[in-house]
Amino acid sequence: MRYRQEYPSYVTTSPLTPVNGVIYCALFATMQWTKLYLLHDTSGAPYYTFQASVLPLSIPANCKVQLTRQQFASNYPNVSQQLQPILRDFNSKSRVLLYFGNATGLRILLIEAEKLNMTSGEHLFVAVTPLDYTAYGNFTWQNMDNDDETVRRAYRAVLLIRLVDITAYSTPPIRRLVQEWRALALNRYNNTELRHNLILPAMMAAYTAVELLAEAIQSASPGGWTKTPPSGKFLAEQLLNHTFNLQVGPVRMLGQGQLSHRHLATCFDFQTGCFRTCLISRNTPVTEHLIWERVQDGRWFDGDSFPPNEPVCGFDGHRNSNECTRQSKALTGSKLCACPMKTTH
């Protein structure tokens, strides 16, 4: 939360914060991307509609990003007619597209991009999933139809951001708590026929919130209060910039009122057909700024280099240089860009 003066009592234990501009800005800064294309699928889950509307407002002021916004509806019959001009516009302005929408919309987008030769490693499609949950779809190339192999090839051009690192919920303390909750549901409430599995990150966030409230009250009034309870602002101040050892394990409450959570960016492995982690976020020790780092074996599109912010020969392929002139004459068959941008694989 950037405006603590306006919301002095704000703290959250949820790994899914209302606004994620800081997360994306940190990624863009790491990759030195300043020209971004935001594409929102209006047929997607309400979560993506909200994120698309607040992103321009939530990006920090010092994040030097030029943002172009567009939208389409993947459930409309004329989706191809919608996407073709959008993709051409994207090609003329950027090489990094941030997609807000469900997995089904991404599949449609990639199929159309494949038709324009925009999934060969020169363009990057950044998709986002809050967590692995049916409401957001299954980001897989396998749909058991004739487009599967096309989508499998196109997925190499995708960077999938997972806002919740589900592996963080497999620690011994959390596994013990899950066993206790399962036993309570069965023995005390005879709850053996749940209609839906409860989302573990949400359960852990609620449990952590109760534990942290107890820590804040104890810190604010060690001997208990005799007159009026402490204010919400004062309780929040007991938590900010502190680390607590709780039943769920150690947690760190950052100065902006959010727990320190790790986010993952995953790249598609064509051989296995699965996404693998290639970037991990973390908060720096002193300033607690969010940064992204490459993992040791992280590879995108079978190589080490992500697309640069702008093609060497410019978006139209005709930047004034002898080298670009020679290449543009040799590559007359491409309508999208006369200068290949990806140089390492």
Q: Which properties best describe this structure?
A:
345 residues; globular; eight-stranded mixed beta sheet; disordered C terminus; single chain; alpha/beta
Order of helices and strands: HEHEHEHEHEHHHEEEEEH
Distance between the termini: 39 Å
Low-confidence stretches: 326-345
Number of strands: 10
Main sheet overview = 8 strands, mixed
Alpha-beta classification: alpha/beta
Instruction: Identify the strand order in the major beta sheet.
Output: 2-1-3-4-5-8-9-10
Radius of gyration: 23 Å
Mean pLDDT value: 85
**Beta fraction:** 15-25%
How many helices? The count is 9
Q: What is the share of helical residues?
A: 25-40%
Overall 3D geometry? globular
Can you walk me through this structure?
It is built from nine helices and ten strands. The chain has 345 residues and is of the alpha/beta class. Strands 2-1-3-4-5-8-9-10 form an eight-stranded mixed sheet, sandwiched between helices. Helix 3 crosses helix 4 (103-115). Mean pLDDT is 85; it is low at 326-345.
